[in-house]
6-phosphogluconolactonase (Nocardioides ganghwensis), 242 residues
Amino acid sequence: MNAPEVRRHDDADVLVGDVASALLDRIEAAQARGETPDIGLTGGSIAEELHRELARRAVDSSVDWSRVRFWWGDERFVPADSPDRNAGQARAALLDHVSVDPANVHEVPASDQVATAEDAAKAYSTALREHGAGFFEVLMLGIGPDGHCASLFPDHPALDARDAIAVAVHDSPKPPPDRVSLTFEAMERCRAVWFIASGEGKAEAVARALADDGSVAETPARGVRGDETVWWLDEAAASALP
Ligand SMILES: O=C1O[C@H](COP(=O)(O)O)[C@@H](O)[C@H](O)[C@H]1O
């Protein structure tokens, strides 16, 4: 596992454009090797901008969208049609605009599909396990102002999940309270983890996540490392870095 790399961008638009272009290149390269890459999507404000940008660029790219598998790093345990669903946001901004194979879109089950967040985590883990070893070509993650990533929040019992791919999260400090998240163990099994952060509100959390010392309990994003870990930041989000 390599040290995280930081890529700074002038503003959110440049950031989103660069991430979109790097992601499309990465998917094309994987498909050129004959693979069907697994891509982990994230929720959050900057992710929505990224999804829209990917949809805009899709026409000119040579990505075969029917040969990409989509997953999520976390999901809110709410009904399938709730506006709070990360999957709903990604569908509206990206997946509904490109020719995905519906069988390749792996949502975490919703609260009107299974009884509990534990059931949803179990079903999602099973689906991921069926697709084999290294989970994602790229897992994209946001970071909250409190340092959370996916749905792993500071000092939360879900941080301690072991021997698990996905974990149910209750009493989330950020609404909605019930969620499902990938565990640290699962996130470590990615070829690339890309954190994407924009705005001054993320600056302190980003600095804590990248500092030489500090605890994962305080800043869960510190605990995530893929084979390659890249922090894609705009200048505002990078403003508290040394
Ligand atoms: O609740 C969540 O928050 C984080 C960060 O979102 P942001 O709007 O503060 O950027 C997001 O990465 C995660 O997927 C989502 O469920």
Remarks:
- The chain has one domain: 5-232.
- Residues 107 and 158 are 20 Å apart (CA to CA).
- The mean pLDDT is 96.
